[in-house]
Design a protein that fits this description.
alpha+beta, Peroxisomal Thiolase, Chain A, domain 1, 9-stranded mixed β-sheet, 15 strands, acyltransferase activity
Length: about 375
């Protein structure tokens, strides 16, 4: 078995940062009316700027594969070229197309040589799943290196035009002409971007991050779906897939919109997160004292105090000075968020040899959680 190191980290955030007051200039007004939920949601999530790969007309400036390619290209130089790459592993919640896979589309833009591909799907854990594939490939000796990515292009899913038919139908039925909170809620939470790591079997440069271990957990066996797209939730908790809808229903009911069961989220995301993190730490024989930086991906600052309390109750509380987050500056970029945070910390100049970093990523899709423990070399 070989050791595995993150030797480089890169990010790509499209266009200029978008402030809270500018968001509806890009995403548009539904029913020509400002969202009543927007200010409340933004006050809770504490995000002050984010990035969109669309312009103010709603036209795309980049697709997901292009965002990912732009992050990946920053990992190459004269010492590690595209011709040296062995594995490309890409995770996303929002691929440009159903098939071919996201990794294949990114590879098509790289135009380097034949490499092994892996595409990880899901929600926020998709980026950690892509990282674990690369980690295991290098660790086993299957490859000498791997590039792993997390990326999202969600803005196109959130623009007002995507909900116009549903609103028109509500009007015709003389109902309140708004979309459900479970859909409007996420319009003010999510944004675009990509992050990428280069994994190699030996440390390189001034700073490398050794991946000591990775762990993942799923509670889908006992909990129903919480966050979903491409279907809708029935009264019995089952998901009706988009392929079982009539064509006109896909538009009339905004079937492809990203939705979240907020009640389920509040009930389980923190408790299962604390439970799984404690299990991961016990399994790998580490304590909170052996963590110098704690990087949690949280969708909203609203959950931070609850997470702190949950970790304390499990005996794994992290002191405030250990927490590292950039949510307020870059937004919630789903599967890319953990990459963006690690990239910022890795290139900050603050890390010292021997520092230990714990990564924590929850996914509300059907409640999955992923963790990684890193040592600075």
């Amino acid at each position: 078995m070989f050791e595995v190191y993150i030797t480089r980290a890169a990010k790509y955030l499209p266009n200029e940062a978008v402030s809270n007051d500018e968001m509806e200039n890009y995403l548009g007004l539904i029913n020509d009316t400002a969202s009543k939920a927007r200010r409340i949601i933004l006050r809770n999530n504490k995000i002050t700027s984010r990035y969109y790969a669309v312009d103010k007309t709603g036209k795309s400036t980049h697709n997901n594969a292009e965002l990912t390619q732009n992050a990946v290209m920053q990992l190459f130089d004269e010492n590690f070229t595209p011709q040296d790459l062995d594995v490309l592993s890409c995770g996303t919640s929002t691929p440009d197309i159903f098939l071919p896979s996201h990794a294949a589309m990114v590879h098509g833009l790289l135009k380097n040589k034949s490499v092994e591909l892996n595409s990880s799907t899901g929600v926020c854990c998709a980026g950690m799943n892509s990282l674990k594939f690369g980690f295991l490939s290098v660790r086993s000796g299957n490859s000498k290196n791997a590039i792993c990515t997390g990326s999202e292009k969600v803005s196109s899913w959130l623009i007002a035009q995507k909900y116009s038919q549903e609103v028109n139908n509500l009007k015709s039925l003389e109902e309140q002409p708004i979309i459900a909170f479970k859909k409007d809620f996420l319009r003010w939470m999510l944004s675009d971007g990509a992050g990428a790591f280069l994994l190699e079997n030996e440390p390189k440069g001034a700073i490398s991050l050794k991946i000591e271990w990775m762990e993942a957990f799923s509670y889908a066996f006992e909990l129903e779906t919480c966050m979903y797209a491409g279907g809708d939730k029935l009264e019995n908790g089952e998901i009706k897939p988009w392929s079982d809808y009539e064509p006109e229903q896909l538009l009339n009911e905004s079937v492809f919109a990203i939705k979240q069961d907020v009640k389920l989220l509040d009930e389980f995301i923190l408790s299962k997160g604390a439970e799984s993190m404690k299990e991961a730490m016990i399994k790998n024989n580490i304590t909170a004292d052996q963590v110098d930086y704690f990087i949690p991906h949280v969708s909203s600052n609203f959950f931070v105090e609850g997470l702190k309390k949950g970790l304390e109750e499990k005996g794994i509380g992290m002191a405030d000075e250990k927490w590292f987050m950039n949510l307020s500056r870059v937004g919630n970029v789903g599967s890319a968020s953990i990459y963006l945070a690690v990239e910022e910390l890795m290139n900050s100049g603050n890390l010292r040899k021997g520092d230990r970093i714990l990564l924590s990523v929850p996914e509300s899709g059907r409640f999955s959680f992923a963790y990684a423990y890193l040592t600075v070399y």
